[in-house]
Amino acid sequence: xxxxxxxxxxxxxxxxxxxxLSSAKTRIPSVILLLATGWAVRRLTEWFHLSIxxxxxxxxxxxxxxxxxxxxxxxxxxxxxKSKTTLIRKxxxxxxxxxxxLAFLMAWVFHYFSPASFKDHLTNVIPLCxxxxxxxxxxxxxxxxxxxxxxxxxxxxxxxAGVLFFNFVALNENLGFHSLGNFILQLLLMIxxxxxxxxxxxxxxxxxxxxxxxxxxxxLVILIYTIAKVYHLPALLFILLLGxxxxxxxxxxxxxxxxxxxxxxxxxxxxxxxxLTIEGAFLIxxxxxxxxxxxxxxxxxxxxxxxxxxxxxxMAIFFLRAIQLRLLKLPFSPLLFIAxxxxxxxxxxxxxxxxxxIPLVNRSLILQVIVLTALVMMLGLMTNKKNAxxxxxx
Length: 394
Description:
It is built from 17 helices and no strands. By secondary structure, the chain is mostly helical.
């Protein structure tokens, strides 16, 4: 039995690796293939009458660890310098404005059809408004540098803004100046904690000579994030600041207290740490989506009652995205199509208190929106590939 489980898990992860290798050429998002594979494995276990324990409790665990590693991986890629100022400004606007606009628009529409409070509707729809960096970043490896950087900035910042916005709405009974003041204090406290923890981790990365070096640092990152989350602090901000610090040592090397860390030597360690983070993020992301696909019931994805709502949500997503790109003077193709929903959407949906959930936002809606946005992205990237090929032939 144990050997069979090991063979199944390693085989599935190798298949996930093949999906990741082929996605750059086929433009098929690996998340669709992973969900389909997980779903197919579930059908096979039912066909052969295999007894499988309840795996649902593992989903938030893989999701949380995956989120940490994915945002850390994305933030390590981000460069902060004067040449990136315009790109960063546009990415900030592209991640923040559509998030709030879409959330309030959908909450208002859903509120018209449901008797729950507007705050409860806002809590339920925010997960649908966050771009998934876990899907977007790996899917744009074949694009030009500017588009890759924009998607990396936008999706990473969307993840963080979405989690902050969700926590602010979900954890406050009344949304007013008092709750806003508390939220700002929590934000400042988290920035202070992040600053101290980042310096400590940077010092550890520089000074540890033991052959086991990166594992304790990653474990400490997960521990700090989890403790901060327990106290309802914006923990994802710590991951972003840590990644930005480590990924931009060259920009900070003139500071005296940075020079004590010997940035030239530390940069070499950061490269190794980044490689380990990328590898770990791939494994956890693959396990998460395989498990989520395994837990999908066929009637959820084919639910006709939620399908029209799902199509409406997806149309609203890309309509607002088109306006956003026009206002920011960014190219429509292929950026218009890169707005997938994924890991963050699932995690935030699972964390909604059952007492405030509304019937319109259910597992079927969440799943259908994830699949539809991934399909739109796939078609957009395929079209972009054809256009690029025809241009190169001219």
